[in-house]
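Q: Structure tokens for this one, please.
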Amino acid sequence: MVLENRGGERLTGVRPGRADRWGDGRAPGRLPPPATLPNAGRVPESLVSVMWRGRWIMLICLVLALAGGFAYIETATPIYTSTAKLYLDYGGIPVVQTQESARIPRTDRYLYTQAELLVSQRILGAVFELPEIRRLRTFANVTIPMAYLRKNIHVEVGRRDEIVSISFSSPHATEVPQIVNDIVEAYLASRSDSQQRNSAQVMKMLQEEMARASDELNGKRDELAEFESTSMPLSLGSDQGSGVAQLYLSLQMEYTQAQLRASDAELFYRSAQMLAKDPETLRQYARTRSQVAAYAGGGSEIAPLEAQLIAGQSDLDALLAELTPDHPRIALLTAQLERIRTTIDELNGRFVRVLLAAAERQYIEAKDREEELAGLYHEQRQQVAELNSELNRYRRLITEVSDLEAHCQTVRTQIREVRTIVGEDVGQLRMKILEPAMVAQLPSHPQKSKIMAMAMILGLLAGGALSVLRDFMDQTLRSGDEIAAVLGVPVLGVVPAMSQRETVPSRGRKVHLQPDAPEAEAFRTVRTAIFFGAPKEARTILVTSPAAGDGKSTLVSNLAIAMAQAGQKTILLDADFRKPMQHVIFEVEHDQGGLSAVLTGQMKLAEAIQRTDTDGLSLLPCGPAVSNPSEILNSPRFTRLLTCLAEAYDRVIIDAPPVTVVADAQILGATCDITMLVLRAGKSTKKIGQRAIDDLQRVGARLLGTVVNDVARSGDRYGYYGTYGRSNGSGRSGSKAVKNRQVPSDGSGPKSAVAITSKGDR
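A: Here is the predicted structure, written as tokens:
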């Protein structure tokens, strides 16, 4: 390829490698896998957001649940319930209670007993003896009427009163109160005979209890008297008991001290045996153990001898320096020193023997004393245990006698009260019907409000569970934060969704046609991210997507327009030979010439480049269809063409096919300076996004980041654009400011116009 500017100067050469163009001498490295990134995984979101996204599922479940509840209400057989209330008052003398039965209040026990009697076989049998009961439709198709009645009758005892409620339910509303009232009447009739016998039964019971308690009290008193006569001096004698306890404590203290002394004497004796070969060390050890008074004998005699030995040795050393060893004076002095040493050894031996004998004697005496005190201590401890046992038995007898006396007094008082109530029905259970059973006007089952409320709750719970399950199973990427966390790549920008009613050219040139729109501002945000995120040497920008329909062509065209408006001389290269779209967006012809025609030598590059209605932006359309796109893009001719375009333009933006569909994008990614991946919110999945990144990284593509496309404007957790683009009035001043803003370039600003031709065509 040869470049010619307007002055006719030619620029030739081969495009420098990417490692040199980055300026750091290294090829772009691979990104770390998502599993090694912090917070990798699906981005947590609020439960409200999940529910709102599954609101249609929840609505359908709610409608189905309500419909099911309504159908159940319409098809269920209505059940009617009638209730009678009976007042029961036990007004007699309380019967003597045992300790176990006293835990339950007297009134409650009798009320629960009467409740069981109401549904007993005797009462229900009396009811079924009535002819009108046997003819009722309620029992027409029942095999065992008695069991059916017992199962469906319900008796409830009041928690704060003495009222018993009797209820019965049946599909026949007029028959229910008749059954309940007959049960109550049968119960009242059964109680009239037993009430006459209550007074005599209560009196007999009290007298029997009084006789039993008196016999038991007399037996306990005799046992206590016998105990006081035989064991009282030992058990309760204050002086003797106190003396036994004091003697036990004293023996315990002496026994403990004897154990310590025996242990100390044994330790001293064993240590003396070990130090017997070193008398001086043994003497020092005896002094540290405070044994110097008894065992330091010989210490005062040895000290002068040791001093004489040291002085004689010093004199001997002095004489040896002057005389010969066989001199008489030296022999005499040597003999004296030997006698002194012999005397010291004899004194030390005697000291060791005396000390060991004394230590052994002390150890034996301490051990004998310990054994003597041990016998006395164990004997005294047994006496104390026997004393405590006698004391406990005495206290228990006194308590039992006191309790029996109180019990007899209570029974005696009850008998006295019973005798004063002559002629009254003692223990009578007074009964009164407060409310008879009436015909129910409304069915008790099914309860429409309760069933519909339960249906609503179940529908909401089922819809919520299905919504959470659907969201958990859904692998669709929905936001920039989620894409950054899951795929481990930065997000360069978020583009809001555009109306499908707009035409392809209108959406593809949104930045030019509607600069105030939020979408245009989003494209400018992506442009800014590229300016400040990519190296200054990066001129060729590849834009691809995981799959078709992600909106990459729309992003490419708007990004190219935004860069041109920022003062960057830009060319848009449509390298999607499979499904080209840039000629449709910019409404130009491409069948007569384009990229494919230039690469096949059918047209010069300068003739194939077309102008657009945006200043500073040129377009190289795809051109006629070719049969081998991958081979053309992988040819040296395309590499030289891309090098020439990078030298002539500030930015070369390439629209590539989807990376996971064909190999074209991988070929281009290995050639271009940086690569951008377009993901569509709500469509692209984690699996396909990761596959696209892996395919690009496999060929060494430098992935700058991703752009999230088609994000909802509102009503979703990702729609946050609103009317941001119109916040400054008409918005035109803002777009002009963006157009006139200085942006980073390669250092020389916009280049002058050049003519580009193919070396083969020339």
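A few notes: Residues 276 and 352 are 6 Å apart (CA to CA). The first helix runs from residue 18 to 21.
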